Amino acid sequence: PVPDALTFAFDADSLSQARHVAVGEGSRYGLTGVKLDDLALAMAELTTNSVVHGGGSGVMRVWTEDGYVVCEVRDQGRLADLLAGRRPVPRDQRGGRGLLLVNLISDLVRVHTGDDGTTVRCWFAR
After folding, report:
1. Which pTM was predicted?
2. How far is CA 107 from CA 69, 82, 93, 120, in A?
3. Is 55 helix (H, G, I), strand (E, B) or coil?
């Protein structure tokens, strides 16, 4: 992220606040209507995933880049399935649709996972 990106560390007790912070930044950077709602939903899904599957906490960053609002969520988890979020899960599977939803509502999603954790970046056109 850019050096002046808004940075917000979150855990289970601050999930709602993380979403509100992201929406505030998205609005400040010019997102409105459905795009702003999409950002809110994506950040809710990603931050919740970090708490549930990524070690209980994470760091969210928001900045602008080339006409987009970029949101990043980083945690200590590791994705075993490199195509997670890129294909539908079986109908009878409980859960597992959050990252797919993020991919469907964002303009671009990039996922990086390794021994040091997972980072998900989402782009939303302004």
Report:
1. 0.91
2. 10, 19, 26, 13
3. coil
Q: Token pair for residue 27?
A: 């609005």
The correct answer on CATH 3.40.50.1820 for the domain covering 6-125 is: no
Dist. CA 85–CA 22, nearest whole Å: 21
pLDDT digit string, tens, across residues 16-69: 999 999 999 999 999 999 999 999 999 999 999 999 999 999 999 999 999 999
| Separation of alpha carbons 69 and 21, rounded Å | 13
Whole-number Cα distances in Å, 41 to 47, 63, 66: 10, 17, 22
Tell me the per-residue pLDDT of 82-95, one tens digit each, with 9 for 90 and over: 777 677 776 776 76
Instruction: Name the pairing type of β-strands 6-11 and 57-65.
Output: antiparallel
What is the three-class DSSP state of 121? strand
7 Cβ contact partners less than 8 Å away, ≥ 6 residues apart: 59, 60, 61
How many helices (H) and strands (E) the chain has is answered by: 3, 5
Give the span between the Cα atoms of 90 and 67, in whole angstroms.
36
